[in-house]
Amino acid sequence: MAKPPPPPSPSPVPQRAHRAPPGLCALPDISYNSHRGLVLGLTFVAYALYHASRKPPSIVKRALSEAWPPFHDPALLGETDVAFLAFYSLGMFVAGHLGDRLDLRIFLTVGMIGSGTAVALFGVGYFLSLHSLAFYLAAQVIAGLLQSTGWPSVVAIVGNWFRGRRRGLIMGIWNAHTSIGNISGSLIAAAVLRYGWGWSFIVPGLLIAFGGVLVFFFLAPYPEDLGFSPTTLPKAVSEASTDEEDSSSSASAAGGAGKEERRDAVGIWKAFAIPGVITFALCLFFAKLVAYTFLYWLPFYLSQTAVGGKEMSVTSAGYLSVLFDVGGIIGGILAGFISDHLNARATTAAIFMYLAIPSLYAFHAYGSTSEVANIGLMMISGLFVNGPYALITTAVSADLGTHKSLKGDSRALATVTSIIDGTGSLGAALGPFITGFISKRGWDSVFTMLIFCALAAGVLLSRIVKSEIVHIIQNRRNQTLDMHNRTADSGAQPLLEGDT
Fold first, then answer.
1. Cα-based torsion angle of the residue sequence 62, 193, 321, 171 in order, rounded to the nearest 10 degrees
2. Could you confirm whether domain 266-479 is CATH 1.20.1560.10?
3. Which residue ranges does the record annotate as region Disordered (predicted)?
């Protein structure tokens, strides 16, 4: 009689694929979950550095307007902002399309090092005593184009490693990088401002370039790049993946031939046709307009406003403005948690935008009464403004990038993200630009504009909100009916002692 086959041996640790980053090849093999933690950490740091390098213009606005021609006119400062944001927005559509076709690790590395160089270039104007508006506009245009590589890349990478019903909370926590970057960028730029405003650009530029080096050596965009597939994952991870992931994400995790299928990216028009993409993109246009107006003008506004009867310095205004982003961290996490619990992204985003309206009004009307009131109302405004902005640019984009209409094609994450955030960035460019002009008539006009935009963002989601509410009500009815039926069945057929 033939001997029975030996029992299957435990799955070996997967061998590193040829696409593995060079830094990981030099390290001992680590688990799948450890790699996921590394991906979260590196992408968090990477995008925090992107945002940190965007903060210097808001910190140095007053210094430039007071002592550096040609920026005596605040409208010209607005022009440099719009130059960056307009080309950032235009570059976003191209960057997302390329991100689904190129190696995301190399793409992100080039973007970080290149944008760091461009940010530092703006600061070089201080040391060369340049007063040409064209030079600073050109530096901002280059920086905007190169910075557009960041968001589609990091969302696509995180979306490749994290899929499932807890995506909103995970990405809500992860999205704190935006506020952390704003806070650190403000603190760094304000701290070195005393040595000359040029350093406020050069230091963040060097930091993001160094982050690009870390990405090149240690970031793996896909689990398959490290040899992970459903057949090589540990049992606990495989079971968790089955519980969390949808069919499209399972398909995208396949190795071998599936890896080649993963490389087929959808066209931009097909991505536009995904249900909800255009609606959320238009909503983000107004939501990001509000958020980026604060990003670029809040320190200037604080330095021009007497709080408790006292005016503050440029440096103090820069430090105080970070509290808006502290509120934003809480808002992003809260929005992600609520949207997961309700399974209603649009409803959560709309509620936050509607609550932002009274928050913005109260901050402008009563924030100057005392420092305590200013801090509290600023943080509340940051919570409601940044909450939906964070939700749409992370969990919503990732959900739509793996929408069932794609029929298993997961190479839409970067493209969908770029469409939504690119459209939002058009609003981000428009807000600071308009603010540069209408702030001359007083800040009442600026806050009126912001309140109107918050209202528009909420209204645009009305159709999806209605559908989600109907779905929530129906699910609750089904749960109640199911519980009633189980109770009735239990009463009709009581278990006897000893029954199992």
1. 130
2. no
3. 239-258
What SS3 class is residue 153? helix
Going by pLDDT thresholds of 50, 70 and 90, the confidence category of residue 239 is very low
Torsion of CA 378, 381, 382, 387, to 10 degrees: 160
Phi, psi of 297, rounded to the nearest 5 degrees: -120, -10
DSSP state letter for 461 = T
**What pLDDT, in 10s, does the model give residues 133-155?**
999 999 999 999 999 999 889 98
With CA atoms as reference, report the closest residue to 159 among 207, 100, 111: 100
Fold topology of 32-222: Growth Hormone; Chain: A; (1.20.1250)
| CA–CA dist 16, 18 (Å, integer) | 7
Residue 420 C-beta-side C-alpha neighbours within 13 Å: 33
Judge contact between 131 and 457, C-beta under 8 A: no
Structure token digits, residue 165: 């019903």
- Sequence ranges of the chain with CATH classification 1.20.1250.20: 32-222, 266-479
Torsion angle defined by CA atoms of residues 156, 290, 179 and 203, in that order, rounded to the nearest 10 degrees: 90
Judge if pTM exceeds 0.85.
Answer: no
